[in-house]
DNA sequence: TTAATTTAACAGCCATTTTTGTTAAAAGTG
DNA sequence: CACTTTTAACAAAAATGGCTGTTAAATTAA
């Protein structure tokens, strides 16, 4: 439904109810949820896409999707983690996919600011879970801000896994300042830095540079990425790993 | 069922199955659970109450229960919080009861290390939620340790609400060192300190002193507490509030 | 004021999880 | 060895939580 609204720019409640075959009440409820996430704004009779966030919500979609790619990437990343060691995960769905594979690597220490990953790992015995606190952001379901950066700076892990929303020839990018600050802090806190991105992120840019690609010890991409982009990335960097699907 | 066993001192499996109208298998399963909790001991054909632990299990039980008391206390505590201000909550079920009332006080900033409270408040719009990170403890479902203490020390709130497992004439107590450290840090971080305890905690002690009762700006107890203990507390401290049930 | 829209409360439905009972095999007791 | 008790595995039943639609009341715009 959000996709529909973002494409159209706006929509009326009754129109949405009809085109999705649900009641007006349900539309209202779902819109309230989307509004809470900051994705749309409700006005009397309908909704408008939160203009400034068209990008972001587009990305939010991308994050939801590509689950097969992310899972393939996650498997490769998990293979790079030593049982008994420590990993830091950022608040990306790719990192979440990695978290799903961590149970097999126990005992393991996991550090993250992503509430969804915390929920997942809180149930695992033999996983020592350290949460990075900070201000809760509903849009990302994670903890950010100064508090989080401070918390990151108080720890160090063997491996750090981050994902960014865009990757060019030279840099990894993200559009939100707040998140960039946390990711950068995370990269400083890890001995080995892994960038995990699916093919849809390649050859794109976003507002803020997170870090040069050469700062990463490994860049993991799925094999379903466009082969020309993959090749280009491999030509320029010696640290690229391709996850077979 | 546990109550029945504790009263009788012991019981047979078939007897329990009949008197509760369930199958023998179900009795076995429930007894296994009680045994895991250290409340009873299984012997061939039946169970015996774990004498040394009757007290302790009673207390564990009481912590789960007393929801009505905790809710009454929570209502009073919530009334002491100004909308627009900030509150810190510890990882107690009493604090969780307070959290349930905070939605009405929005806008509000809430700081906590209790995952259950975080889950609850993450859904509330108009609540600015700040999580205190740290090492996750499944036994308390909260974040503790050095990381948490550091995080607490980086913030200050208008009000701090803590609950402890025991309260004597002079002090508030808790049996776990790790938790004591966090609670003490929290008390240092708040302008107004509220101790919220239900009547079952009165006139008891535990291993570690958390703080003298006079350090608190308010002590909130439910009216169902034994009246002699209540009176004694009020005689010695001018900051006692009784929550009517 | 009127009509449309939004909200709140309730009840039903679906999927998931938890609890329960049955059965059969295993273990323990005398 | 014969008998009782306990355990494991599976299927049925019950409970739970999430989502939906209906209705009626509240709110808002014209």
TrEMBL record, chains A, B:
Domain of life where this protein originates: Bacteria
Organism lineage string: Bacteria, Bacillati, Actinomycetota, Actinomycetes, Streptosporangiales
InterPro entries tied to this protein: Carb_Metab_HTH_regulators, DeoR-like_C, DeoR_HTH, NagB/RpiA_transferase-like, WH-like_DNA-bd_sf, WH_DNA-bd_sf
PANTHER family: AGA OPERON TRANSCRIPTIONAL REPRESSOR-RELATED, HTH-TYPE TRANSCRIPTIONAL REGULATOR SRLR-RELATED
GO molecular function terms noted in the UniProt entry: DNA-binding transcription factor activity
Keywords on record: Transcription, Transcription regulation
Xref: PROSITE patterns: HTH_DEOR_2
Protein name (database record): DeoR/GlpR transcriptional regulator
SMART domains hit by this protein: DeoRC, HTH_DEOR
Every HTH deoR-type domain range: 1-49
